[in-house]
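Thread: calcium ion complex, take 2
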Amino acid sequence: MMLEMGRPSAESGALVLLIEDDPQIRRFLRATLPGSNYRLIEAATAQEGLRIVGLQHPDLIILDLGLPDVDGVEVARQLREWTLIPILVLSARDQEHDKIAALDAGADDYLTKPFGTGELLARMRVALRHAVQALPNNEEPVYTLRGLRVDFGYRQVFVDEREIHLTPIEYKLLTVLIKYAGKVVTRDRLLKEVWGPSYTNEIQYLRVYMGHLRQKLEADPTRPQYLLTEAGVGYRLKAD
Ligand code: CA
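Output below.
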């Protein structure tokens, strides 16, 4: 498993998680994707895949349906409870009802095996493009609040025109707060949307990462102007 975490943009250098138990397909994509400037992480089981999504926040998930532990349709359903990361199903199941089940569960697209490399790459590009458009505000891929500016398309964050480098988790945390700007977001919801549903007890994670985010975004982290604590409940991005 590759542990690299880096700058993910829509199509160049995007981090792709392949959840697939077939070693031939894994080998094939391992040989193909880096040449198209994708970074690849692999999981051979549904459980491992779900865990990696929570830890590494890939930009795109390629999901097999016939997995050894949990069916891929169920994996898509579980992912959609907390994340909008695009899911491209890659499966030997070619019946219409299989495709409908996967799409209804939350998959964005469906490609049947055997597949052509060109078509796979084209569908990956489409899925990544749609994901950028699906970010908090459709029309406006940039969020501004006083001196804070977040460009969702390029995943860049600025404070007073100075670019701030956030880790993937910090960025995700910020985007969730922006999604609910002005509203109190409970600790449970933040943990679920940032780390995944199995992390809702990890309040300490949240404190640590909120601290990092304040260090990076606030002029005085002890008297935050953006990231407010709602004692005993959660956090709130102070909107105008
Ligand atoms: Ca399989």
